[in-house]
Write the structure tokens for this entry.
Amino acid sequence: MAARLKVDLDQVEMVSTNLQSIVQRLGSAQADADSLADAIPVESLASASTDFAAKWDDRRRELVEQVGSLQKEAQAFVQAFTDVDSQLADALTRPPQPSAASHGPTAV
């Protein structure tokens, strides 16, 4: 019995896109916190917002790295399957090439 593998590349591509969006949002979290702090009229709340963002900078960097790695893997997965699919389609639609053994006279 032949095994089959079905992959929804559109879904994997969407995961890759979503992961890239997460990386961008995590990367801009400090700027968002600063903007939020500027918009908060209560100084103690504004300060708490800025402090929170500053305290988790190390963890955020780790998350950016990890999520970025997942995003690259998802994109590589899509690219690899797309490349293999194209190669297989090409092999199935390419006219047969004469083999080197079929050229020239044959001994009888």
In short: The chain has four helices and no strands. The first helix runs from residue 9 to 27. The mean pLDDT is 84. The CA atoms of residues 9 and 82 lie 8 Å apart.
